[in-house]
Write a structure and sequence with these properties.
This protein is an alpha/beta fold. 33% of the residues lie in helices and 16% in strands. It folds into two domains: 63 residues, Orthogonal Bundle (DNA polymerase, domain 1), CATH 1.10.150; 297 residues, Aldolase class I (TIM Barrel, Alpha-Beta Barrel). The strands form three sheets. The chain has a nine-stranded mixed sheet with strand order 3-4-5-6-9-10-11-12-13, covered by helices on one side. Strands 1-2 form a two-stranded parallel sheet. The protein has a two-stranded antiparallel sheet with strand order 7-8.
Amino acid sequence: MPVSKQSLIGLTMPQLRDAMALADVPEKQRRMRASQIWQWIYFRGSTSFDEMTNIARDLRQKLSEIFSLDRPEIVTEQISSDGTRKWLIRLRPDQHGRAEEIETVYIPEADRGTLCISSQVGCTLACTFCHTGTQKLVRNLTSEEIVSQVLIARDALKEWPHQMAMNPKAPASGRFITNVVLMGMGEPLYNFDNVKAATGIISDGNGISLSKRRMTLSTSGVVPEIVRAGEEMGLMLAISLHATTDKVRDLLIPLNKKYPISQVLDACRNYPGLCNAKRITFEYVMLKDLNDSVADAKRLVQLLKSIPAKVNLIPFNPWPGSPYECSDWGRIEKFADILNRAGYASPVRTPRGRDISAACGQLKSDSERLSGKQRRALEKSL
């Protein structure tokens, strides 16, 4: 098997400068060359060193011999009737030739465009209401693989500056992707270092330049890492809460047996920078006759006292074999009304992308769902 080239995608700026030594770039030039390459990759979206016209031709040739700018492969793209897009992405094969797959979702709305990215292949948490939880954890994603999801989405949406300038449908904001949420496959705080490196790259002002105020990390409650994430990443925080008692949350989120609700909320109260302008979002999936009572709503109000917060109420999105049902709409509205009257914004999230299994809690690699025969037929049709 041929040895694959090292990718420059996902390297931090110091790592990129160090990589220049492998191409025999003189030490005094490494900072400049790294900055040039950084802008070509993350501001212009370049996929070839030949495009880097402010770099000498012989150095471009040397870089192309040693390094790669290749994106992971898009296996399928599905577009929902509501405009939501889901990509099944095949990652670079490992040393054994195995290529894992992940899913990434883009959700367009009138005032924003949200990209939901994955941080792991599979998930270790086994949350019983989540389809991803039925897929065992395979491994953490690298910084390259996390950042590449954003690059792939920008490619597909034609969002790079030179493309947007010629696009009559370009939004007034100048971006299709205005927000990134780490709410795809996996638990981000169990892949802390790679998530930190990737979000630093995505937010860097000389490249993609997406504000950290527009990036949200969602966790099921890995208590020891919550405050650290605020200190070292500075992203907006979302907590997958989904219950108001430990008995119910133990059933929904097994991690709660290790880090119960009281510990999760204490970590939230200590989240750096917490204020009304930087509220914590609590995600709450509405499950019929399980967590949707008036008593649950009132308990939730008490639990959130002293935490600047809002609550996203999520109608349960069904998936094959799920043991749960979505709460009745009237009960969801009553639940929301109790929260709103207590002063907590509690929008009911409109299900998006259900028809392509791209809605919240539905992500799971198609490679896990299809038989070998089905998968070969799908690949042959592409």
